[in-house]
Design goal:
The chain is mainly alpha-helical and about 600 residues long. The protein has helices at about 45-50, 50-55, 75-90, 100-110, 120-130, 135-145, 150-155, 160-170, 215, 220-235, 240-255, 265-280, 290-300, 305-320, 325-330, 340-365, 375-395, 400-410, 420-430, 440-445, 455-460, 470-495, 495-505, 535-545, 560-575, 580-585, 600-609; strands spanning about 5, 15, 20-25, 30-35, 40, 65-70, 90-95. Among the domains are: about 5-155, Potassium Channel Kv1.1, Chain A, CATH 3.30.710; about 375-490. Keywords: Ubl conjugation pathway.
Amino acid sequence: MKFMKLGSNPDTFQGDGNEVSIVASELVSDITVRIGTTKFYLHKFPLLSKCARFQNLIPTTGDENIDIHIHDIPGGAKAFEICAKFCYGMIVTLNAYNVIAARCAAEYLEMNETVDKGNLIYKIDVFLSSSIFRSWKDSIIVLGTTKAHLPWAEDLKLVSHCIDSVASKASIDVSKVEWSYTYNRKKLPTENGNDSPWNGVKQQQLVPKDWWIEDLTDLDIDAYKQVITAIKAKGMVAKDVIGEAIKAYTYKKLPSLSKVSMIHGDAKVRAMLVTITCLLPSEKGSVSCSFLLKLLKATNLLKCGEMCRKELMKRIARQLEEASVSDLLIPTVDGDTTVYDIDLILSIVEEFVRQDCKNAQKHNGGEVNDHVSAPSASMITVAKIVDGYLAEVAKDPNIPVYKFFSLAETVSGNSRPVHDGLYRAIDMYLKEHPGLGKSDKKRLCALMDCKKLSPDACAHAVQNERLPLRIVVQVLYHEQTRASAAATIRADSIGIGSYESSRSGATTNTEDEWDGVMAVEDLSLSKTTKLDKCDTAGTDTEKNHGGNKAANGRVKGGVTPKKALGKMMSSKGQAGERSSSDSSDSAILPSQEHPKRTPARSTTKSAAA
């Protein structure tokens, strides 16, 4: 830390422990200066020789002791003591912690060059410009002390000088950084490996781009806002570095923001969150989506205002594909019966869809095509995130079906190449809401495209007692269609003869279980059954009628749709799980979906009979 000593006379100020300071001298004190509750017993001549204000306060005639009250001097008694010692020529030490107070007090006492050459104001200004403002850490310390001396520090442009000093140093090329700084952070991802050894010799340690971030976290929010604004205005620092700086500052001042527990605070915390939101760089990716969601969670809980909330939601929507499901689980505010604020997430997803559509129109030259265009990679990713979020909030028994449905349909089915995630979310909702009406069940399940379910999901769905019967039948039909298509392709590629030979050698089936990438709680699969003798006989008969169609009557696991449906209907009838009206309503496939009869299928039927 830089410092400056003024004066040469020994310090003879003495205190009696009762906020009284007396100058030890042979001369009797002839002036008493009261600063708040502190009394200074001084002499007129030293004060009059340096301070124009005392020249106006002290009468030129009369030898009586004068008592002067000063209530508004910046820096208070300590700052006045520095000025008084300078008047006596005593040794005074100035440093980054007291120089602003001394400068403001000297201005108040009018200790300028018109009174005496080389006065205190001049000496302090030289010290600031030649020493303090050239030091990185001293500039930050001085800036932190200016708040206690407003508006004097601002009127004297001390604040602006401090801000410019700090911002200029933060914006300088890292190769020119020669001063010490605090750095206990991990380097930015783009800088990893910069200091790796080369030819067995370790290169000189490079200064990281974000070297200045930690030292600024000691500033209060007002000073920090001014510094970041100045750094932005200079335009020399990358936006992601500025974003990282704001993130580090936020976690330093609000450590509970990074924890799972709810953040608490008062009006001061709310004002800080609003300021931080306004400081965020506008460029996409300058801060992580996870950090933005944490800010949104805090502003939502503390009710920081609709404008701040909407700004964060807009920023989050621009990079929603980076979010995780856990970050989206934002608790509701007081008065709501649901655990998580699904309306908030719905608004964010809707904003994302709007922005994605605009980007697609720009990519197509502003034209809107009539046909359904392929979804963007971001849209596909967001669809997966939304399905994962739905699976989590579905566990809340108080989530109404219309909210669940609205969020699920916000992302189009075209954006889901595979509907396993959506199936898992719907199944979880049906599990946690057993009293859901038949019409609501059908409406929810209509969101799924059975043709986009994976084989594992299909195997689970056909045994899922919670699904409407119509959906189960559709899954069976599409699984049969998929198996038939696969068999036809194999027959065409390897020839009918070799296909019949391979079919005759098949004696067992594999076991399939619905676990998938996204495991469903309490969902288990029974192992698939082996082909019974009826199937074997049917296979032999099918060989005589053309082996290329032998697989048409089978679904994954070797069970035909009719058999699976018969077993399912039988078990459901015995358990009484479905009403007769539901079964008769939903067990019928649309006429256009009935598979064509084939010789193999009719032969199998006769053999089974």
